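Q: For a teaching handout, I want to show students what a protein-ligand complex looks like in token form. Below are the inputs, and the small molecule is cytidine-5'-triphosphate. Please produce the holo structure.
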Amino acid sequence: VIAFFQPKSLVGQHVLVSAGPTFEAIDPVRGITNLSSGKMGFAIARAAQEAGAEVTLVAGPVALATPRGVRRIDVVSALEMMQACVAEADQAHVFIATAAVADWRPDSAATQKIKKDGSGQTPTLGFVENPDILATLAQSPRGVSGDLFCVGFAAESHDLLAHATAKRARKKVPLLVGNIGPATFGQDDNALLLVDAQGAKEIPRNSKLALARLLIADIAARLASQSA
Ligand code: CTP
Ligand code: CA
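A: Here is the structure, written as tokens, with cytidine-5'-triphosphate included.
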């Protein structure tokens, strides 16, 4: 329970974490977002800091306190999150992508509040796809060489193992962590499925902080065996 008792398995490592939802503007007062609370990402940032890592947390709009000793960069949109993560990744050894990045953004945000015109007509929204932050960093030279160890997350509504395995391959990440449902957004506990090239193992249901500590210990062991 107390940070003092956590093994310092990540001393000398710089860990970058993305967390929370993104918010994609429609006009100055409206936008599209999702129900990610950011709790898992914040717990992971805290656990990494407790393990001795230098931690940078790139956070979308969430109502959570910054974990002690963690450097936090607040962003709003997926494009801002992408820019911040790319800029920080140069210094990082590990990237843990927990953010629920909006897959699409409105193709153009109105500069002024969209008004009803009295005719009962509804506005039509067009969308463009946002860049994939995790795939971009995993396929960057440091991601490919393993100097930046990239970890993805997946929240699926069904067939978690199959989807997580396919997602790991598609994103080209060494480790993909599945949230074992039902819907975990905002909840305080969860269970995780760790999928790597060897197969899958489960971390049974626990608080998000306990899971975060176990995941950080697991990642630290992977880094140690990589450099051994
Ligand atoms: N991710 C990201 N940038 C995006 C979309 C996703 O960095 N634009 C990251 C998430 O932070 C997560 C992983 O990719 O670590 C998987 O996200 P997910 O939404 O499950 O996968 P998608 O590839 O977007 O596929 P889909 O939503 O269609 O299942
Ligand atoms: Ca998605």
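A: Two things your students might notice: The first helix runs from residue 39 to 50. The chain has a mean pLDDT of 94.
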